[in-house]
């Protein structure tokens, strides 16, 4: 769940909060703020679980979140779903990197 520790790591802590509560094309710029944020997944989960109606959270606009909630009515806990998916992604990525490091590249002459 979202907490002060996560908020302290968020990229948006360094900007004017109003930059995330914009309309129209400005929302695309606001979404860029979320790129590379270390707590993006948790932020998005908080917005989805809490049904936050306004602003860009975790890289998604309110319209995008509403559409996702309509499509995935079966999800009862976005935090668990998104953080476990993120963990699996990172484990797979780490495993692939380790496999590449272990497999020597053979040169063909």
Spell out the key features of this protein.
single chain, 109 residues, mainly alpha, 5 helices, 54% helix, globular, Whib
Question: What do you see in this structure?
Answer:
With 109 residues, this protein is mostly helical. It has one domain (4-102). The protein contains five helices and no strands. It has helices spanning 4-9, 26-33, 40-49, 62-71, 78-102. α3 (40-49) packs antiparallel against α5 (78-102). The model has no long low-confidence stretch (mean pLDDT 92).
What's this entry about, in short?
Helices cover 54% and strands 0% of the residues. With 109 residues, the chain is mainly α.
Overall 3D form? globular
- Measured between the Cα atoms of the first and last residue, the distance is 56 Å
Number of strands: 0
**Could you estimate the helical fraction of the residues in percent?**
40-55%
Kindly report the average pLDDT value. 92
- Total domains: 1
Derived from helix and strand composition plus strand pairing, the structural class reads: mainly alpha
Poorly predicted runs of 5 or more residues: none
Assembly context of the chains: single chain
Biggest sheet character: none
- Helix and strand run: HHHHH
Instruction: Report the total helices.
Output: 5
Approximately what portion of the residues adopt beta-strand conformation?
A: under 5%
Radius of gyration: 18 Å
Family: Belongs to the WhiB family.
Function: Acts as a transcriptional regulator. Probably redox-responsive. The apo- but not holo-form probably binds DNA.
Subcellular location: Cytoplasm
Organism: Nocardiopsis flavescens
């Amino acid at each position: 769940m979202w907490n002060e520790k996560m908020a302290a790591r968020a990229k948006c802590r360094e900007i004017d909060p109003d930059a995330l509560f914009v309309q129209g094309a400005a929302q695309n710029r606001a979404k860029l703020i979320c790129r590379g944020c270390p707590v993006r997944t948790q932020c998005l989960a908080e917005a989805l679980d809490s049904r936050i109606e306004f602003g860009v959270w975790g890289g998604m606009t309110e319209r995008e979140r509403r559409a996702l909630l309509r499509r995935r009515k079966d999800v009862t806990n976005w935090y668990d779903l998104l953080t476990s998916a993120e963990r699996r992604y990172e484990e797979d990525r780490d495993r692939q990197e380790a496999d590449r490091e272990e497999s020597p590249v053979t040169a063909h002459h």
